[in-house]
Fold these 4 entries.
Entry 1:
Amino acid sequence: SGVSADLWWVHALAPDDVFFGGSKGTILRFDGSSFELLPTPSDATVFGIWGTSSSDLWAVGGDPLASGEAFVWRFDGQSWAPPVGMPSVPVSSYFKVWGKSATDVRIVGNDGVIVHFDGEAFAVQESPTKRRLLTLHASVGAPWVAVGGLGSAVVLEDAGAGWQDVTPEQPLKAIIGVRVAGDVGYAAGNGGTVLERTAAGWQRQSLGFDVFQDFHSVWIDETAGVWVAGGDLATSPLVNGVLIHRGEKPPSRQLD
């Protein structure tokens, strides 16, 4: 890419239209063969990107150690800029943005902040927690789920009647990644923790083997296979990545 930065998130609209966000205000666009560095309003870290098209994208981020540095930008196909009407919220960072559609977009961040955009206006939603929310996910027909925490976990759900704290009672470390598909949901976090959404609520799953690294992301593929990825980000060199899978055994593939 010709850019030296830590990349925190990727959002693919198509194989030849992919956006990456990271440190130093970095947003890269990949067209299938080359990268373009897009100008952005500041050098704060971009932690999340989501959108419905290359002319309607959101980017969020900030500086978790600096109060009031949280930002939201929108991309109209030409440039990134703060959206008109975004409420001023005194938090240090937003961490993720996601949407069910262009008229149902939500943003989460430090201090349990949740902001909703309905296609016309923004509103700060009532949140049952003051702890940081690191990511969220939803799909059509599925509830919104937001997860986070610091020393211990927090899990929130909104099935249409407002946000509820549904964190399991057993002590859990912070949860960092989440994915839902209909009634199915998985979340994962520090210390190799994996949660599954069941009829009895979110429950910790036994992996059948030890994982000591932290999980950062979850994905449910088109065959209902579950992929969880992460690693040790606190110790250099950064070589202790971990990837686990649940479902039919995927075909073997040599990674380049």
Note: The chain has no helices and 23 strands.
Entry 2:
Amino acid sequence: MAEILRYSSHGNNVSVFSLKNIGIIRKIAYSNSAKYYILKEERGLSWYEDLLGKEKLLIKELVNLKNYSKLDLYFLDGFSLSYLAPLRKTHFYINQCIDHYHEKWPKRNFAPIHGDLTLSNIIFIKKNPIFIDWEHFSEDDFLWGFDIAYLLLSSLILPDRNKINFHPKDI
């Protein structure tokens, strides 16, 4: 049985379904503009799988037709954290992400990027991060560390975005 996880979130016309009974997360694009996100995600996930050095950890199948694209991903049995959770409660996991990035990303001044790395785009399996949701992937060279800066700033600012002052423990 399919469970809809997202329907055209962020106005991108990509719907996401969980088919847990067969171990699949399915992303479907029904328009040419939405196909762009599916294809970027497939490129980003392929690049990331190469970094991890693991075959077929994330991508099961890509179907790309004229007016329709489908990306089937293996279901990862882990947990995620909300990007709205305060830094004082997520700092351990953010440190895990920083260590993962430092260990895996190419060691050069410029590197490809995930594009919107927040805690909601990370699955933790036994406290080890796996970066998911690569629809904003860019192979253009950005400064090394861009994604970690994005993660840190979003983890500090987004939970308290409606407040004038940050919680002292988060600072």
Note: Residues 28 and 70 are 5 Å apart (CA to CA).
Entry 3:
Amino acid sequence: MSTKSTPVIAVIGSDGSGKSTVCEHLVGTLSEYGTTSYVHLGKQAGNVGRAAANLPLIGRSVGHKIEKTRVKVNKTNHTTLSGLVVGLFLIRRVRRFRNMLRLRKQGHIILADRYPHLQVPGAYDSLTLPSAPSKNPFINWVTKRELNAFQWMTQYRPDLVIKLNVSLDVACARKPDHRRDALRRKIEVTPKLDFGGKKIINIDADQPLAQVLAQVDTLVDEFMVEQGFKKVIKGEVV
């Protein structure tokens, strides 16, 4: 393995672009170059909702709020409860991000499903609360904490960003339970994001899965070689 710092590779794209499948596949590909850790840096609202439901006294109410509304991005009339939901999301994301940094420091190659950004406020994987002051002091407090956390996280830029670009019709066909307008917004914002990555790879995610995975493998192999890494299979460098 190279003596250089291990890379952080982020995979982004709308729902229906195949992120989960690509990430699952890439863990195996990258493991040939060294110890690889998969991290999810998105909200994971469903998991947070289930965890929040176990909180004493307010758990059921908070969990229901998360599961049913998932906190509307840039909603202007946030309540104390919705601010608490955002806070729970934020705590989880920061903990996951710190864990990612710890793993990288230990020499792990990092594969990140999603990545925080400030490039398009309100877009997926960005800030949830609007910057406009609220009449609710608690909302203002959470808003400040959220901005501070994102400013800190976005200082750490991925070494490689793999963008899975999918068309609206294909995404809707793959995710029939998702709202078309919500998918459209994510698809439209994806080309605008680069997360400050040192290298960007654009993939046509409308292609058959086998072609997408083959293309990703080839380009990631090229990237790892550029970074000075060599495959290690069964203890032998190849």
Note: DSSP finds eight helices and seven strands in the chain.
Entry 4:
Amino acid sequence: PLESFSIFRVAHNDQIAQEVVSAHIRSLMASHLTDVLSSDQHTVKPWFAGKLDFSPPVVDLKDQEFPLVGGRLDYVENRPIAALAYLSGQHVINLFVWPSMASADAGESFVGRQGYNALPWTRDHTNFWAVSDLNATELRRFVQLVQDRSRGG
């Protein structure tokens, strides 16, 4: 039974990985990176109010060279989710956020798809997926900063 759960979890994460990478690619192809264009977390976070049934954490990382570009609505796992757009030089990072049904936090593990890196984790009943063409080291640094800044809300 535990083995079949592990196989299901891997297959489920593989499906989500494909969904978030596809959403990342669509945001770049369609020039639809943001619905709300702002580098101010106090503008982006309230924009989601009334559009989602949760409030995504929005962190300001411009001092760490990952400026916030804005946010948009996206759709993953058959539900609307928050997508936060950040930059690292010329590289776009999409941070996808939505509530988790998991009762325990889960650490990150890299997934590669179509030339993009995806790094998922779960914390405080929230799923996070960071997706970019950044190298693994820089994407991990971004994720660590997000984790440090979003603790406690």
Note: The chain is about 35% helix and 30% strand.
